[in-house]
From TrEMBL:
Entry superkingdom: Bacteria
Record InterPro entries: CheY-like_superfamily (IPR011006), EvgA-like (IPR051015), NreC/VraR/RcsB-like_REC (IPR058245), Sig_transdc_resp-reg_C-effctor (IPR016032), Sig_transdc_resp-reg_receiver (IPR001789), Tscrpt_reg_LuxR_C (IPR000792), WH-like_DNA-bd_sf (IPR036388)
Domain Response regulatory residue range list: 2-118
Spans traversing the lipid bilayer: none
Alphabetical list of SUPFAM superfamilies matching this protein: C-terminal effector domain of the bipartite response regulators, CheY-like
Stated name of the protein: Two component LuxR family transcriptional regulator
Residues carrying 4-aspartylphosphate: 53
PROSITE patterns referenced in this protein's UniProt entry, alphabetically: HTH_LUXR_2 (PS50043), RESPONSE_REGULATORY (PS50110)
The entry's keywords: DNA-binding, Phosphoprotein
Organism in which the protein naturally occurs: Caballeronia hypogeia
UniProt-listed GO biological process terms: phosphorelay signal transduction system; regulation of DNA-templated transcription
Amino acid sequence: MRILLVDDHELFRAGLALLIKELFPDAELLHASTLSHGIDLAMTGQPDIVFLDLELPDGHGCDALGRLKDARPSLPVVVVSGDESMETVGRCLELRAMGYVPKSSSPEALHAAIVAVLSGGVFLPAASIAGLRRAIDMAEAPAHDSEKAPPTNGSVEPWDAPRLGLPPREYETLAWLVRGLPSKAIASKMGLEDITVRKYISHLLAHFNLRRRTELIVMMADKGITLGTLSVTDASRDRDSPSDGRQRTG
């Protein structure tokens, strides 16, 4: 497992690296202190997951996430930030982050985030799930305690298509959607027309009685749904897939 850390504070980055190595001794760590260096490593270093700070010298706020996802649409990105506002968390989900870890979080939250994302799931702290539900007017439900890492050896049992009540192609669409790909890029990877993928996304939202992708992501984090491992697409194939950068909401 190769993890890219993009944060301009060397001390925080070093502490995060020590914690990750304690939790995952075999992890290989890549470091970047600027967004441009982080994008370069994302393109050449073949990371499996990125932890991204939002406040970088050359990338302010959510713009940093948007630029990274434009460069590598299929690469899982988890935001690590001191900003815990629901507006920022929600915006990061719209920009296709697979997780959000406040810098005030416990080590268990970091562990849970890595396990969830590498298992094809989404990580949000319970407080963020509750706040986002209120902010986007979703039906209230007991919050899944996503900050507790599963009692496993680093994997969780994925939910298959029958368990979710989905046809295989819609299940595959969901897996790519969670990974953070816009519809045009999903269509390219699945060998389908964009209009077909958009139809699948509409079916997914209707199936779960939701209105937009952000609600779908919150629901998956809330229920602890994972979809299994998808191989991280290499940088050259990402460049061949349209990132649809102007339409980030599915």
